[in-house]
Amino acid sequence: MSTEQADLSSLRIERQHKNEVETTTRKVSYLKPVGIVLSVIVLIIIAIAVKNTVFSKTIDVKLVTAEMRSPSDNLALLSASGYVVAQRKAAVASKGTGLMVYLAVKEGDKVKKDQIIARLQDDDIKAQLEAAKATLSLNQSNLNEVKNTYERQKKLYDSGSATQSDLESAESNYNKAVASIDLAKAQLTSAQVALENTVIRAPFDGTVLTKDADVGEMVAPFAAGANARAAVVSIADLGSLQVETDVSEANIEKITLNEECEIELDAYPSRRYSGFVASIVPTADRAKGTVLVKVGFQKYDERVLPEMSAKVLFLKQKETQTVTNEPPVLVLPDASIANRNGKSVVYIITDKKAKEVVVTTGIKFDGFTEIKSGIHQGDRVIQNFDEKITDGVKVNTD
Asked: How far is CA 358 from the centre of its chain?
């Protein structure tokens, strides 16, 4: 067959197939920029994650608290905690039972020995007292009569005008009258004591600490009644205050009588009081394994009150005179203070970031440095700083 005779119709391109090819081509063209955009987004996310990991890594740190400290702390053999206790203290109660009708004191009042603190209702006791007085007076009158009779019978007996029986009878009546007088006097004394028991007096000079009963309440010795009060007030001699503290048995040999001490009250941390070992109680507490030591004050003021918590430093025998007069100062460990650009700085934590604070330092002693300004007592600063700790760096304190 010749070329001219060939059927060229089979070489015709179908339009439908051509359209499919063009559509596929257009789809591929559209997907190329979308893929590029997605790749860029992924790269940006990876870059941000790397930046946060590498450049914004948090640093683990430990904190230390700025506290008041005295140079004498370095000379302490040991320290112990305890409470201020009045060595002379009493819960003043009544020896009688009755309704309290008068109370002369309140908390904080100073009282003198034998001063009247309160009174109980005493109408019935006064009536008994008057009856005892009347009985005594009656018996005394009867005594005069029987005494005269007895003396007359003695004379009659001596003259032979009275018998032995008459004399003995008169003597017996006289002895009974004398005994009646003694009984009446005893009853009078009992009534007077009962009346005095309705008066509650201060047993010694002191200060009223608490008021335990009010006017209108029943008062009874040892709270004999179900609703009765035992003590009316509690008083203490504030001139007998000492700190009672428990010292471990293992350390008790370090303590001697009259050993110099320094006392710090939790209520006044900036004030120290000179003290001394007043006594060591000669017994141990089996449960706690401690020995009670009583520490006296060399001198104290009205701010020292019973039951205040206290810390006692038992000092070395030497150098105590030059130490106890020095007031405590605000300190930080030397390792927590950095020198940056010629300035002393510390780092506090704000919003989980280190914040640089310039401080003014003072004396140094035993690993501590006095902080005169910049921070306050109780502030917490970074303890283990290094070159990685800078202003604004993220830190973790957990």
From this structure: 36
